[in-house]
Amino acid sequence: MTYTAKQTRQFYRGWDEFYAKSENEKLDFFKREDRLFDVIFAQQFDRPFLDYICQLSERVRQLARTKMGADKLRHLLPHKRCMLYFVQPSTRTFLSFLNACHILGLSVSESRGTSTSSEVKGESQEDTIRTFASYMDLIVARHPEAGFAEKTAWVLNQTDRPVPIINGGSGPDQHPTQALLDIYTLERSFKDIGGLDGKKIAMVGDLKRGRTVRSLSYLMKNYKDITLYFVSPDIFKMKPDILGFLDKHQIKYHQTDDFESVMPLVDAIYMTRIQDEYADDTSQESGTYPAFHFKASHLSMIQPHCALLHPLPRRYEIEVDVDPDPRAAYWGQERNGMWLRAALIAYIFRVDDDILREFA
Description:
This protein folds into two domains: 5-174 and 339-357, Aspartate/ornithine carbamoyltransferase (Rossmann fold), CATH 3.40.50.1370; 176-335, 3-Layer(aba) Sandwich (Rossmann fold), CATH 3.40.50.1370. 38% of the residues lie in helices and 14% in strands. The chain has 13 helices and eleven strands. The chain is globular.
């Protein structure tokens, strides 16, 4: 499909109109045959999908434990190629996607910045992405600009070579695959006490700019009788758009700056760091905020089953002396990301049934 200069201008003007729509209005645009094609924001996931992707992640994990199972996984997608377009610093998300691709046999290319691409010569982001799509079957994008992954999917879905886009983190906006692996981690943590339904979850730290807690909050509409506790300094309180979403879906939440008062009440504590990289005013929007750190002395204050999560990297939000405690779920949470992302890629390329047949 080719465009005249006039058509191209009209094409890109249409993006603003599309971006202004609500997420619910956009859902079908990112599907193929009633199945997810692009993974852009957390509102795309309903309860049946969440339950299914957690089950599939568990099956991938189990298969990979043996050489025979790992070989079967590796032969699922050797004919597919993935581009990891990570122009924002990343360790965990990049490596988990890289290894998820390796688990399934995909070939991987990567770009970790724009300084070595033709964007230096003035090439637009849209043309850069269309170039990647010429060679690749999947693009995972991590970008500091909110809405970048969505725009990428919007552009490619109107070309003759639409390839799936996975949002690997979009500015201070959303991080949908992190939210998926957080759900997977919580479900595994609560498997002996009824799962995630009915649980109380504290989210602590920079809630204003933390895309992980924003995305996870959206997913709470899929679970019964959830209560959220937003614990933060006043300057980093959760934004009104999330609070409005929770109100709309009648999800209970409380806001406080008294961390210790919440500790004994909750089933999970989700710690976050202060997102200095998004500070508009570094004199006011950065710092250590020790009242919002989890210390070893706090372990005696939380419930025996309480799961302690952190998307990492951490700086000082959780003392290292907490790491040996069995309730410290954040290192398992990190590894869960690899299995979850492998399951998601298998789902997108429709080889999930091949995995499940191994357990029939």
